[in-house]
User: What shape does this take?
Amino acid sequence: MTLLVVGAAGQLGREMVRVASASHLVVGLSRDDLDVTDPAAVRIAMEGPPGHQWSSTARRGPT
Assistant: This one.
């Protein structure tokens, strides 16, 4: 199974990549790698390797 972790450079994302890597192929993307506000870019990222894809984002800074 392939997991896509968006926000992989953040605290939660790093931990998710570390834990999941023990039993899955993990593709980790940071905000420099993927603009989650760009639907076309997200679609391309999600069309990566076949299998289950999971993403998690955490907002930084004030809301």
User: Anything to note?
Assistant: The radius of gyration is 12 Å. Residues 58-63 have pLDDT under 50 and may be disordered.
